[in-house]
């Protein structure tokens, strides 16, 4: 009887602990990672046991969004910011968990019904706990400043302006994204030490027209003492002005060395169709003002063109400006079309596929250093298989690249499919082989050189190519 008591106690103790509490740390981290960005699930998991607390806390506080005024008091951005500040003050170690911060602030002067909009709850336009909160976040990796409805930098209080640029300068910050926020001065990026940045992204951004012209700050050695050296500069929608501003300041402050960025990514979507009738679009004039030294410094150019029957890029000719880039090593082009736009070989250039313009620019480009070319398009492979090459200038693409680019090592063509080639359902479409054969026949130079690769992707994965 007495010998059975310890065994009974041991069984009772094991029943008090769940299987989840007995998991090793490696499995716990994998489970928490699998929960992703689901706050309720992460919160529930944090109560499982002591070993679950730290990883779930990291997941819960990894990404924080401040702003977007709501109707309820608990959604008031100032209240939420004050709550976060109090939490950071009482729990100092929590700041190390916050790696991504998104500040969202409206730029509307009027409400949707036409009445004046109140800025009383704005984190940026009025006195708020935001500067004190930013001062405690010393481990940020990504900072996103979102104006939501084209906010103006002039509305931001001096305290908030200083706090934001101080946060930009934190050595741990690697990525800065500015969305729908106009008038932010860019001179501080060149006058201060921002060498820690990896990427800068601007979407629907207009520079401050009153900002002083760039002043030379070249040192005796001929280069800036603190140079902005990005891996990627990303520009989306209405990008031309900011591209000109950055390129001009880079040349003025550093003398063109070292390169401002290794890779330039541009999304040309955003200019309405009524502009396409203009033979000289304003964007063309802006590109002409950009110093050639900037284009010569770019090694990777990733350009994305989205076009529909009501929207297209900034004109018919010289769409991608490939001729300006003379030292490219990698060129990536992504073409997105909606169903209303069809392939046309005729003169209807209003909705003609940008493929034609791409080939024309490649024929006139200077790409003697090019080693890799990728063309990703939502062209269905079934279209090639059933309708042949539908008039697309694949042969011209072949001749524009292979003979004229002696260092070209890979040429990738991405086509789309409405099925997933990896789950076996692609067997329902034996025309994949036919589509590939069509390309091989029409691009004999690349095929014979052994550099042609044809990939089939689903529309859902197209953005990741």
TrEMBL record:
Species assigned in the record: Coprinopsis marcescibilis
Organism phylogeny: Eukaryota, Fungi, Dikarya, Basidiomycota, Agaricomycotina
The protein, known as: F-box domain-containing protein
